[in-house]
Amino acid sequence: MENREDLNSILPYLPLVIRSSSLYWPPRVVEALKAMSEGPSHSRVDSGEVLSQAISDMRRSLSFSTLEPSASHGYALLFDELIDEKESKRWFDEIIPALARLLLQFPSLLEVHFQNADNIVSGIKTGLRLLDSQQPGIVFLSQELIGALLACSFFCLFPDDNRGAKNLPVINFDHLFASLYESYSQSQESKIRCIMHYFERFCSCVPIGTVSFERKILPAEYHNSSTAAPDTDFWSKSDVSLCAFKVHSFGLIEDQPDNALEVDFANKYLGGGSLSRGCVQEEIRFMINPELIAGMLFLPRMDDNEAIEIVGAERFSCYTGYASSFRFAGEYIDKKAMDPFKRRRTRIVAIDALCAPKMRHFKDICLLREINKALCGFLNCSKSWQHQNIFRDEGDKEIQLARNDRDSGPLRTETTALHGTPVNDVEINREKPANNLIRDFYVEGVHCEDNEDDGVATGNWGCGVFGGDPELKATIQWLAASQTRRPFISYYTFGVEALQNLDQVTKWIISHKWTVGDLWIMMLEYSAQRLYKQTNLGFFSWLLPSLATTNKAVQPP
């Protein structure tokens, strides 16, 4: 165990110690967890106030820094005032002891994880480790191990002083509880109730599936060595046809009926404000699918040419509202089928948009940044890629991303499965693994269905507090999805007025058989006119002047 590169990379961020090739809790933590596992008659942990004191004691025994100052008040507020006496008693009699027992098993769960990680796919690392910036890779975690990791977060047992230096987001729950006390809101309470419900469900029946976390990086084979992504010329010359565009005025991305890739309107730090005060699209998704939080442990901040794809996270909660009106609305039973790797067929991709771009959004460099970010996120590794060439080099020479004679080959999936199944589809350059976007692995006996539901389910990415232009962002995502050969986009407008003509515009463009390059060139021309104040129309009214006669012109920001 001591010689494992993956374990050594993550060990500084775990509360465990290693001795004689085994992982252990320090003795005083074992003593505290054993007492809690036997219930309040042994541990005396029967209130939020006492629970916070027990957490502080364990952190001191680990030589960790003190909790966020208001966190202890937050635990007391929740368990001693906000939830009713019956629910509180159940937590201290049943749930807290069950979580303590789970944490006592944490070292052995992790050891089993590393033993299995070597047998998943030959030559591919799948063990828990720091997936650092510009290092593409994948981690497979069982839902049981994720439960143990989230229990560590609940008890604030992860070391946190060293996380900032690696650009890692917060992982302990002390900020979540501190925020509840410092600025109480029903939405903040509802966030915590979602997590409580997850733990209640977990303790009643331990889930048996798997979740994969992958850092995706745009490859370097098709652009200049001085750049990290395709340039304007690449997009202008694209002759790829635009994919189908489905507009939904109502509904939610997470409720989409297809097996589409679901977009997380992410912060560059995965999870954003999930474990503090945030309560918009990304944070809500992390609350109703709490297993997503596990990625915050080992996935540092995303760079401009990176995305994070998570496959298999189970949904546990229903909700209503958004932001300040967000409310926990009870149990959700996730009926998504599992793939051969025991992952639910829920694929979520985190892509971060430019923050508060305003007029910057119309600059070529910003348009490129956004479309290349979406391109990285939408790259589809689950299909066979036969007869498909996504990238062209400067000489317009096609880089083959699929071998046409492998149409009957074994399974090709976005990531890796447990128990010996392939991770990705094509190896572009074996001598430059850091630049590989898609790798090529085949295992006998497992085949995939070439389903046509692998489109993209998205919406107004980067258009809320980040200040993006909804018409441009919709267009950018359409271009990226089309370039990656996604068969369709399901676009949820959430009632944004600027997108009332989205369906009409996309149908008109498709009827005229525009390519990705055609639409990109028009968007560049429009953006230049907006930047130099030669028009104040929105993109759609500028593109189709007939719309301007029936719609109010969009004023420059």
Automatic annotation (TrEMBL):
Active site: 264, 282-283
GO BP, one annotated term: nucleotide-sugar metabolic process
Keyword terms of this UniProt record: Hydrolase
InterPro entries (UniProt xref): PARG_cat_C, PARG_helical, Poly_GlycHdrlase
Molecular function, one GO term: poly(ADP-ribose) glycohydrolase activity
Domain PARG helical: start-end pairs: 84-215
Known EC number: 3.2.1.143
Residues annotated for substrate binding in this entry: 267, 281, 322
A Gene Ontology term for the protein's cellular component: cytoplasm
Stored Pfam families: PARG_cat_C (PF05028), PARG_cat_N (PF20811)
Top-rank lineage group of the source organism: Eukaryota
EC supergroup of this enzyme: hydrolase
Domain PARG catalytic Macro: 233-501
PANTHER family tied to this protein: POLY ADP-RIBOSE GLYCOHYDROLASE, POLY(ADP-RIBOSE) GLYCOHYDROLASE
Family: Belongs to the poly(ADP-ribose) glycohydrolase family.
Protein name stated in the entry: poly(ADP-ribose) glycohydrolase
Organism for this UniProt entry: Arabidopsis thaliana x Arabidopsis arenosa
